[in-house]
Design goal:
Strand order of the largest sheet: 1-2-3-4-5-6-7-8-9-10
Number of helices: 1
Helix content: under 10%
Shape: globular
Strand content: over 45%
Length: 299
Amino acid sequence: MQTFQQGIGQWLGSAEVFDGTGRFLGNGADMRHVRQLDDGQIRIDVAFVGPFKHAGAYFITDHGDYRQYHGPANVGFAETIDTNLVDANAYWPVLGLSQRFVLFILPDGHTQLSLALMSRGEQLLYTVVGQNNRVTEPQTSLPLLVSGASYDLAADPSAGRGVLLLHRAGVWQGTLTVRDHTRQLLGTVAVSEQIVPTQDGLRMEWRGGSFVTGAIASELRSNGYLAWSIPDQALAGSYSLSGGRARSGYWHVLDSGLRCWLREVVAHDGTIKALLRYWYRGGERIGIEYGFLSFTPQT
């Protein structure tokens, strides 16, 4: 597959940066220039200015199902799940940070959503939630930002929005693409996720999917930075929240014994979220579901 064609060009955007506990540290300006070189490599020039800062370049060889990052700014490996989705494990030598990175390109082809978990050893130091747009004209609009001072917003789980986008009352629904453990395409499946806020958290109900069928509901507690299931639920587990816009964590479906590794990022306007689920039996990955869900609010 021509995996890099959607990513060629110049991308500009903003990021929200959180510390390892989910507290807001500040915004970042993110600039990337992606070029195909004559020798077949891809060169990425990147500059990020925010709570941490870095500028440099790295080179990628694209092998279809995977990519290798050859440095100097970024070294590592990425799975190419689809032409619009990459899951990377990498290391940024100048920063001394390991990165678990998921990048989605939305169906419009001109918007990227990303989630980066940046650690030193096993300690999570930064979570970076990004949204970039492809530069198609000499002058582009300013990135979307929520105004506020990090001094104040660090104590606000919503990072100034006044609402946790992932915990609003309503339904997320759409179609996910399904692949097996070798990334072979199995088809698509319609899914929905209903959210009902409660006094100390939320009730979540999944419907649809290829690896778990029927409806699965769970009661969750949440402090705005984390959410976790209570005892005696069909779906057990927990996740971390970043500004209410992104989440990462694990679910265990108790009756089937399956485990789900989850990554989600909501667009700035809250209308769409990108979703990636890896399904495991023990330590063996058995399949992948991913795609974009649209939100319908409920009162």
